[in-house]
Amino acid sequence: MANCLGVDPDLFFPERGASTKEAKAVCRACVVREDCLEYALENSEKFGIWGGLSERERRRLRRARALARAAAAETRTA
Length: 78
Hints:
Blueprint: H1 21-28, H2 33-42, H3 55-77
């Protein structure tokens, strides 16, 4: 079961500049953290803490994954 079940959803959607530490702490030991993160990445969630990552962190992860896929594809065709 997700650690966030029963937690105020506003915790995961902090105002700009507000701390995300408490939300990330809820996610840290969650058994569905990876699934939650993948859901957010696959659905391009632009707001909130998902799977323990902020919007900016998810954007960086998507970019890194895209670069890794491109490099892998280039290696296969070389």
